[in-house]
Write a structure and sequence with these properties.
The protein is mainly α. About 75% of the residues lie in helices and about 0% in strands. The protein is globular. This is Permease.
Length: about 425
């Protein structure tokens, strides 16, 4: 039975932004991921010695800010008016400014970690905080509007993910200030770093992936809608558990058991989403597993594996387990989900805009499946999976870091090339129709 608040499958294109707005984000993201992988290939084992290494932090932020957040922001600027009927104020100007700030700020932050220059951290803070605050502010204003019926679960997930982004920004700003003005502030850096990573990956990225999945899975992958227990107050409970786990961190005595209980519930909640998604994908109406399906299956398996490694009681302190959790969450869960999403959203948006231009000229656009041929996406997925497995193994055998990074770099460039085919179709056909 269809849940009462299942996301609608019909979309509203009344306030659809121009194709150039989301594409600038979608085409920038794979390049930042490729840059992170190339940096890892260059540095090799040195970047996997510990998660506290400046090299590791530079690579991580190139991925999380330059790739994942880049894609998420572009997707939100596109989805809010189309899926929820919510118009982001001054979308064109906001999208352009945020994109420039995010690109320049991410590069400055990565350079700051690599070179250790306080000036670079100050520049990165100014650019990133300005761009992200502008984005959050514009979305907050938009959220006051009435949303379309059926989009409640998606909008709720977006609201909570934006709240998590604000907390991630605050924690990240505190950490960056310690590098920008060394010795000025005395802070528990390890605790703040752990909270920053948790709110960034499980809050901002995780809750947004969940919210987007509520719309993308039934519409693009032809699955049944998510069950009511997930599209109801699920996102709210995940946010509350993130808050409880954050506040209870550092408690002693019985408080330690309570903190571990919050972590276990949090892991169980995300595992529930991962298991439900795999179940829906297994029962989808089309038995053929296209690249998007393969990417999302990989993402959910990596999410479950990351939760298992995160909670598994280690016999002895080791750097391998935290690095493995990072690889599984960033390259396995988030990058795989983003790649699968892009392979559906970009061809669809390109086809829609070409179809709209057809009314002015009568020229027929290509079939949506011809915009990015499936065989090209298939081989890119294969390279991505091989690179992911080698990077995961490199957490335990660092000698595998370089070959894994080379494959992942090739996969990211392959994703960029495939998405670029959509731009080529648009450039070649639309000017001829104007």
């Amino acid at each position: 039975m269809k849940p009462l608040d299942a996301p609608q499958r019909a979309l509203s294109f009344g306030n659809n932004p121009p194709l150039s707005l989301p594409l600038r984000y979608f085409l920038s993201a794979p390049l930042f991921a490729a840059l992170a992988a190339a940096f890892l290939a260059w540095q090799g084992e040195a970047a996997l010695l510990t998660r506290w290494s400046p090299l590791t932090l530079a690579i991580t932020h190139l991925m999380v800010l330059g790739c994942l957040s880049m894609t998420m922001i572009g997707a939100l600027l596109q989805m809010l008016p189309v899926v929820a009927g919510i118009e982001v104020p001054r979308t064109h100007a906001v999208g352009a400014v945020v994109h420039v700030c995010l690109c320049a700020g991410t590069l400055a932050l990565a350079a700051g970690f690599w070179l250790g220059g306080p000036v670079l951290f100050r520049l990165a803070m100014a650019l990133l905080l300005a761009g992200l605050m502008l984005f959050v502010g514009a979305c907050t204003v938009a959220m006051w509007q009435y949303h379309l019926p059926g989009a409640g679960a998606v909008v709720a997930g977006i609201r909570l993910s934006l709240a998590a982004l604000v907390l991630t920004m605050i924690l990240g700003g505190m950490l960056a200030s310690g590098f920008a003005w060394p010795g000025m502030l005395q802070m528990p850096l390890q605790r703040i770093t752990d909270l920053h990573a948790m709110w960034g990956m499980l809050g901002w990225v995780g809750l947004l992936v969940i919210g987007i999945a509520f719309q993308v899975m039934p519409m693009f992958m032809l699955t049944e809608p998510y069950p009511k227990f997930l599209t109801g107050a699920y996102s709210t409970w995940m946010f509350i558990l993130l808050g409880a786990a954050s506040l209870s961190r550092g408690w002693t005595g019985h408080g330690t058991l309570l903190h571990l209980g919050f972590l276990a519930l949090l892991a169980a909640g995300y595992a529930l989403f991962g298991g439900a998604t795999l179940y829906l994908l297994a029962r989808r109406k089309r038995p053929h597993a296209d690249p998007t399906t393969l990417f999302w299956r990989t993402a959910m398996v990596c999410l479950l594996a990351a939760l298992g490694v995160w909670l598994w009681p280690a016999a002895a302190p080791s750097n391998a387990a935290p690095l493995a959790v990072g690889v599984l969450l960033i390259a396995g869960f988030a990058l795989s989900a983003v790649s699968g999403m892009l392979y559906k959203i970009v061809p669809f948006l390109t086809w829609y805009h070409l179809q709209d231009a057809r009314a002015r000229s009568g020229r027929k656009p290509p079939n949506i499946n011809q915009i990015i041929p499936e065989r090209h996406a298939q081989w890119q997925y294969g390279v991505h999976l091989a690179g992911l497995l080698l990077l995961l193994a490199a957490c335990y055998q660092p000698a595998l870091a370089r070959p894994g990074a080379v494959l992942m770099c090739a996969a990211c460039l392959g994703l960029w090339f495939n998405l670029g085919r959509a731009v080529t179709h648009h450039i070649l056909l639309v000017p001829a129709q104007s």
